[in-house]
């Protein structure tokens, strides 16, 4: 303490006198209080800016237009398909199986509901068997073995004015949601 | 010969192989004093002597050489992308031995009250980086580069048919280092095995230093004083990670079926895989009624089990079996530790439920893609 | 001693050599040997002195150093591969074939691929060593966590590279892997809870806006996927892993060098 006093008493002309020192201190105190609100404001701004920046970066990865193959195609006439058979002709190009039974035609997706491999149609066993992890699906698309958690998806099917079948892959129907009862998931023939 | 082969085929069935590993593990890598005593009494610690190493490597190499005489074995093991895994097996044996042999040596030194092998008295405890370290580095780099060159000239990198999105190969496998996870895909849905589980593995690994807070045992190999944490880590790393990779690589064939190492990969082999959900077992088999249409009611048994596992088990254990743990770690660390452990234990539990009860899901809500 | 100097000594004491290697001359004295390390930006990654046990192979297995060395091999061989490889569905596969068949020293692809496998193994074994010596304990907890991130990045680098040959092996491994992203809880179109993120009939998480889409740049594996993985593999992930490696190495020094028994 005594030393402190000594210091203040031997002030060189360049350093401010004690009174001024006090004043600075007071201003500092006020400053400290306002400073904290400025600090929080600063933080809010910083977080918002960073968040905004990263949102922008994230959004950047989701383009507005996709250059992907068309999702709607004409699949010939209903009579092209045999009753009781799985038709493979659009598998390669559009990734669908056309199945015709006694009542009509439906379109099954060739994407395994487990992890997206392409199952193979085994006519002898009358099932779709997925080579990746062994899921099996019946002709209807219902899963019955292996790790697949749900049935294959079906796509929208309808008739054009000229009698041709139109398959629309943008519209899908999931059995577990009860959507296979939807009239558009099935073409009565 | 053939009898031996079919015996190997038989015991490498995951049910048997995994059970054997599970039962044998605590005796080889004892987690507690009791197991440690049995471990010593049975003489298993002799594995970590020079003789032990020679025997372990000899058996492994002999098995591979013997196996290469078999066409099916040869086809799988010599597949270019599988070669590193054969190497990994040998490396794992060697490095597990290397660390544990030093650890046991140090354990003995500690028991005798002597400083550990890594300890040097000051001022003779330091060496200069130039030349002592740089030379070691230089030599390792040269040897390793030579090894890489020989490997690259000797083994062409695989390139299969051009990609064809409508023709899945059978079986289709992830890169080998993910095959442990892919093995989990057989027992869990992708959201869990492929996303949640890896996240927990990463978090769990990062959490290790914050859960194992015992400051002793850093900077030297040792076993006895760190028994529990070493045993848990080795179980996760050797069994849940590497054994599953080996199974996924060598023993998973067409349709993701299980094939012994000497078995022909027959893609037409029939396998009854009809699995049932817990709700079906309870409501249909036991109660003889249909499944309730209300989802929550239908899945009530599974949800109840999960609730018991995650909300009731940890506090229960804190009061009983793990009481000393709880007091040492404090509630936050304890909770994180126990929950991570439960996630770890759930893996083998679900595997066994599948093998013995054909259980598909404990909770099954395909409506929300939520199956567990 | 004759005052005639041999050619090496003359070079080592000449102006050019001295200007490049500060101090010059062969590092013979203790002081010179310390200065060699301090004066070189590369060697300065090391401390000047280190504990005796740390230079023994049986302690570190040299696995951390090897991981780093393999990373350098992969960087160099990867850059060389980039001179021939075009990341489009039309060319990718044939470019890879040409790399083995038409390019001199056609083992660059092998070096890169086997190097990638070796790096994964080396990083695993390094982590194994670090655990066995208890080197994750204070004060090295944070560096262990940085290490875990390095491990994840190593696996991601390997995974993104796996797709580039665009062969059957590649696309199905990636198909299976990326479909898992589609099962991410809440953020994947086929993940639990994603249907809860909806207002009325409008789903926010669809096949065209979920985590899987972000990864593969489309609803199907295709051109966009190849490009995304290529950029991540060649630029994005190496850039990130280098930052974390810098932190890792820096922290080894700051945490008191290699762990030592007390
Ligand atoms: C790209 C991957 C990695 C590289 C290049 C790398 C490099 C290194 C190097 C050169 C060392 C010096 C000692 C030695 O060689 O053992 C080291 C030490 C260390 N590494 Fe890594 N590492 C990597 C990944 C990891 C991982 C996956 C972990 C753990 C999860 C980890 C945790 C540590 C720790 C804790 C130390 C300090 C060890 C001690 O002081 O004894 N590193 N690392
Ligand atoms: S992708 Fe079909 S069973 Fe896994």
Protein architecture, described:
The complex is a heterotrimer of chains A (189), B (372) and C (262). Chain A is of the alpha+beta class. Chain A folds into 2 domains: 58 residues, no CATH class; 117 residues, Rieske [2Fe-2S] iron-sulphur domain (Rieske Iron-sulfur Protein, 3-layer Sandwich). Chain A contains 3 helices and 11 strands. In chain A, 27% of the residues are buried. The longest helix of chain B is centred in the N-terminal third of the chain and has 29 residues. Chain C has 262 residues and is mainly α. The mean pLDDT of chain C is 89. Chain C is 60% helix and 3% strand. Chain C has 2 domains: 49 residues, no CATH class; 197 residues, Cytochrome Bc1 Complex, Chain C, CATH 1.20.810. Strand 1 of chain B pairs antiparallel with strand 1 of chain C. The complex binds protoporphyrin IX containing FE and FE2/S2 (inorganic) cluster. Protoporphyrin IX containing FE binds next to helix 5, helix 7, helix 8 and helix 11 of chain C. The site of protoporphyrin IX containing FE (HEM) has 27 residues of chain C, from helix 5, helix 7, helix 8 and helix 11.
Characterize this entry briefly:
The complex is a heterotrimer of chains A (189), B (372) and C (262). Chain A has 189 residues and is of the alpha+beta class.
């Amino acid at each position: 303490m005594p030393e402190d006093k000594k210091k203040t008493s031997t002030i060189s002309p360049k350093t401010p006198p004690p009174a001024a020192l006090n004043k600075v201190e007071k201003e500092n105190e006020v400053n400290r209080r306002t400073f904290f609100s400025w600090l929080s404001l600063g933080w809010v701004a910083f977080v918002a800016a960073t968040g905004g920046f990263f949102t922008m970066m994230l959004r950047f990865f989701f383009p507005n237009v996709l250059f992907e193959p068309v999702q709607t195609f004409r699949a010939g006439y209903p009579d092209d398909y045999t009753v009781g058979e799985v038709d493979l002709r659009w598998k390669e190009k559009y990734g669908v199986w056309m199945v015709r039974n006694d009542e009509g035609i439906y379109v099954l997706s060739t994407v395994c509901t487990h992890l997206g491999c392409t199952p193979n149609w085994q006519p002898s066993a009358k099932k779709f068997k997925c080579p990746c992890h062994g899921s099996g699906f019946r002709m209807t698309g219902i899963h019955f073995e292996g790790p697949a958690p749900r049935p294959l998806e079906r796509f929208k099917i309808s008739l054009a004015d000229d009698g041709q079948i139109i398959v629309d892959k943008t519209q899908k129907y999931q059995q577990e949601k009860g959507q296979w009862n939807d009239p558009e998931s099935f073409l009565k023939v | 010969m053939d009898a031996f082969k079919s015996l190997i085929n038989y015991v490498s069935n995951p049910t048997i192989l995994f059970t054997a590993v599970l039962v044998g593990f605590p005796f080889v890598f004892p987690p507690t004093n009791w197991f440690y005593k049995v471990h010593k009494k049975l003489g298993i610690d002799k594995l970590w002597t020079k003789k032990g190493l020679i025997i372990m490597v000899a058996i492994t190499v002999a098995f591979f050489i013997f196996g290469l005489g078999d066409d099916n074995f040869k086809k799988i093991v010599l597949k270019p992308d599988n070669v590193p895994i054969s190497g990994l097996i040998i490396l794992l044996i060697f490095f597990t031995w290397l660390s544990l042999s030093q650890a046991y040596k140090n354990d003995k030194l500690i028991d005798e009250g002597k400083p550990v092998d890594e300890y040097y008295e000051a001022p003779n405890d330091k060496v200069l980086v130039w030349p002592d370290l740089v030379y070691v580095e230089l030599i390792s780099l040269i040897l390793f580069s030579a090894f890489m060159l020989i490997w690259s000239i000797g083994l062409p990198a695989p390139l299969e048919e051009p990609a064809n999105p409508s023709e899945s190969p059978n079986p289709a496998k992830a890169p080998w280092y993910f095959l442990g996870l892919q093995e989990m895909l057989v027992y869990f849905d992708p959201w869990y095995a492929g996303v949640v589980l890896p996240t927990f593995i990463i978090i769990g690994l990062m959490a290790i230093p914050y859960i194992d807070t015992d400051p002793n045992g850093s900077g030297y190999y040792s076993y006895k004083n760190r028994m529990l944490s070493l045993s848990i880590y080795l179980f996760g790393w050797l069994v849940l990670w590497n054994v599953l990779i080996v199974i996924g690589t060598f023993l998973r064939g067409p349709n993701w079926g299980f094939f012994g190492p000497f078995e022909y990969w027959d893609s037409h082999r029939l396998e009854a895989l009809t699995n049932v959900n817990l709700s079906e077992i309870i409501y249909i088999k036991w109660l003889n009624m249909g499944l309730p249409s209300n989802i929550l009611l239908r899945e009530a048994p599974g949800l109840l089990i999960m609730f018991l596992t995650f909300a009731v088990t940890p506090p229960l254990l804190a009061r009983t079996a793990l009481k000393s743990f709880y007091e040492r770690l404090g509630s936050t660390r304890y909770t994180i530790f126990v929950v991570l452990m439960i996630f770890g234990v759930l893996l083998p539990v679900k595997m066994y439920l599948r093998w013995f009860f054909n259980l598909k899901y404990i909770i099954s809500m395909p409506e929300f893609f939520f199956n567990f | 001693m004759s005052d005639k100097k041999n050619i090496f000594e003359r070079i080592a004491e000449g102006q050019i050599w001295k200007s490049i290697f500060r101090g010059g001359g062969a590092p013979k004295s203790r002081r010179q040997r310390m200065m060699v390390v301090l004066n070189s930006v590369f060697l300065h990654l090391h401390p000047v002195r280190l504990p005796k046990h740390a230079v023994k192979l049986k302690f570190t297995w040299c696995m951390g150093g090897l991981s780093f060395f393999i990373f350098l091999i992969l960087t160099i061989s990867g850059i060389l591969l980039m001179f021939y490889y075009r990341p489009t569905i039309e060319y990718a596969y044939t470019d890879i074939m040409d790399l083995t068949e038409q390019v001199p020293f056609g083992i660059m692809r092998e070096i890169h691929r086997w190097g990638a496998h070796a790096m994964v193994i080396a990083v695993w074994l390094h982590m194994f060593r670090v655990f066995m010596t208890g080197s994750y304990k204070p004060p090295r907890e944070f560096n262990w966590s940085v290490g875990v991130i390095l491990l994840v990045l190593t696996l991601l680098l390997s995974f993104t590279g796996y797709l580039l040959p665009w062969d059957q092996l590649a696309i199905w491994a990636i198909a299976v892997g990326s479909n898992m992203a589609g099962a991410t809880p809440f953020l994947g179109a086929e993940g639990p809870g994603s249907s809860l993120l909806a207002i009325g009939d409008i789903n926010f998480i669809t096949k065209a806006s979920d985590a899987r889409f972000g990864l593969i740049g489309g609803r199907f594996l295709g051109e966009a996927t190849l490009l995304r993985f290529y950029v991540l593999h060649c630029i994005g992930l190496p850039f990130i892993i280098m930052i974390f490696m810098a932190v890792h190495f820096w922290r080894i020094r700051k945490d008191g060098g290699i762990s030592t028994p007390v």
